[in-house]
Amino acid sequence: MSKWIRQSHRWLSMAFTAGVIIYSLAMTQGQPPAWVGLLALVPLILLLASGLYLFASPYLQRRRTPLSADRVAP
């Protein structure tokens, strides 16, 4: 599952970048409609969720597995 989340996080980052570029281009034409701002906001919220999971997953996995003899400091 972690591999799937990592891959979707990468694709979401590209969608977010495209949304920001589209929003920036729309701003040059005047005040854009509100839905144009959501093009960048929706991927950003999903990036936050997947990024927090990816950040916390190594710590959560380390907590679940018992310490082995070679990882314990003397």
How does this structure look, described?
This protein has 74 residues and is mainly alpha-helical. Helix content is 78%, strand content 0%. It has two helices and no strands. Helix 1 packs antiparallel against helix 2. It is rod-shaped. The model has no long low-confidence stretch (mean pLDDT 85).
Summarize the structure.
The chain is about 80% helix and about 0% strand.
Helix content estimate: over 70%
Q: What's the number of helices?
A: 2
Rounded to the nearest angstrom, the distance between the terminal CA atoms is: 35 Å
Main sheet summary: none
Taken in chain order, the helices and strands follow as HH
Strand content: under 5%
Which blocks of ≥5 consecutive residues have pLDDT under 50?
Answer: none
Number of strands: 0
Radius of gyration over C-alpha positions, nearest whole angstrom: 19 Å
Averaged pLDDT? 85
What tags apply to this protein structure?
74 residues, rod-shaped, 78% helix, mainly alpha
Write the layout of secondary structure elements.
Layout: H1 2-28, H2 34-64
Helix pairs in contact: 1-2
